[in-house]
Amino acid sequence: MDVAKPRGQPDRVLSHEEARAFYDRFGPKQDLQRIYEDPAIEVLLQYAGFETACAVVELGCGTGRLAARLLEELLPEDSKYVGLDISGTMIDLAQGRVAPWADRARVQRTEGSPTLPLSDGAFDRFLSTYVLDLLSEEDIRAALREARRVLAPGGRLCLASLTFGQTLPSKLACRAWTAIHSLSPRLVGGCRPLHLEVFIGSDWQILHREVICTLGICTEVLVARRR
To answer: How many angstroms separate the CA atoms of 14 and 136, rounded?
Structure first.
């Protein structure tokens, strides 16, 4: 099954350098998107099982807002957290957010390659929210291969991504978003709607999948276990 996109349109995405430049500029405004992200994140947290996690890696930690919540409210006191991001601005913001837990949390800048500077099987949660929808289909598949590599058997893949509309208003909003993205991905921060589920192969057992729509913007929440 192919990932849906406008008929005849290539899979246009920002290059790693373009994405870095955009989010270096946009970083301080990132949390304004919580108005439609937070309802989906709440669902993700219900099924991710962070309360029993020993080690979490977040691909695209952004401003560190979610990391700080995990560390303050959900993760066990002896658990470890690693956040990765391509943007220097995001790294600076995230470092400030996780500073109270510096003994067990760190953030690290990457160059945008799907290959992660992490050991095999070192984590039991792989978290990524509103990041895969920026990546090319090839990079999404590579990122999920890396997720499987760094997760121990039984570890959980915890994802949230923009997806396609479910109701008439959300379908209209999605159509407009997709049209803008096809014109210039920069205008929507490189993000476009995806079907996450089509990237999940037999190496994963899906534990929960749900689509949450807020203000006409829909998010696919997916939690899967590494087999």
So the answer is: 9
User: Average pLDDT in the 14-43 region?
Assistant: 93
188-209: string of b/e by CB count within 10 Å (b at 16+)?
A: bbbbbbbbbeebbeeebeeeee
C-beta of residue 67 within 8 angstroms of C-beta of residue 105: yes
Nearest Cα residue to 77 out of 99, 95, 50: 50
Beta bridge partners of 84: 59, 108
Domain limits of the chain? 16-226
Tell me: the pLDDT tens digits for 110-165?
988 888 999 999 999 999 999 999 999 999 999 999 999 999 999 999 999 999 99
Residues 6+ apart with CB under 8 A from 99: none
As its CATH architecture, domain 16-226 has: 3-Layer(aba) Sandwich (3.40)
What are 157's strand-pairing partners?
Answer: 126, 224
User: Cα separation of 57 and 46, whole Å?
Assistant: 18
Q: What is the pLDDT of residue 1?
A: 35
What average pLDDT does range 208-226 have in this prediction? 97
CA within 13 Å, CB half, 23: 29
The model scores a pTM over 0.90: yes
